[in-house]
Specification:
Layout lengths: L5 H6 L7 H24 L4 H12 L3 H11 L3 H18 L1 H8 L1
Length: 103
């Protein structure tokens, strides 16, 4: 579906970061993306739906979580794509600041 990896960093002008900083930045982006997507997906969920989905997350049941999303939030791939594009735009806009803070 999407990859936050070296190709992503190349596409936003951060491909020349040192390897350890690449991994740390990718991890930061992944956590931010998960937070944003999660926040949007829980909008309008009933308590029992939220509890059911959280069970999959707490048990690290990625397959179950994806199946649950496909059944209960079929638009989740669109939400991920939208939030990833927003994140990409933010990183591009702040690229110079990111690079200066790392160096």
């Amino acid at each position: 579906m999407f990859n936050l990896d070296d190709d992503f960093l190349q596409s936003v002008g951060l491909g020349n970061l040192p390897e350890d900083q690449k991994q740390a930045f990718i991890q930061h982006l992944l956590e931010e993306l998960e937070l944003r997507v999660g926040s949007r997906l829980v909008e309008g969920m009933k308590d029992d739906q939220l509890a059911e989905f959280e069970k999959h997350i707490e048990n690290a049941d990625d397959t179950g979580a994806v199946q649950w999303l496909e059944q209960n939030r079929p638009q989740y791939k669109d939400v991920v794509a939208e939030e990833l594009e927003k994140l990409r735009a933010e990183v591009l806009a702040g690229k110079d600041k990111i690079l200066s803070s790392i160096q």
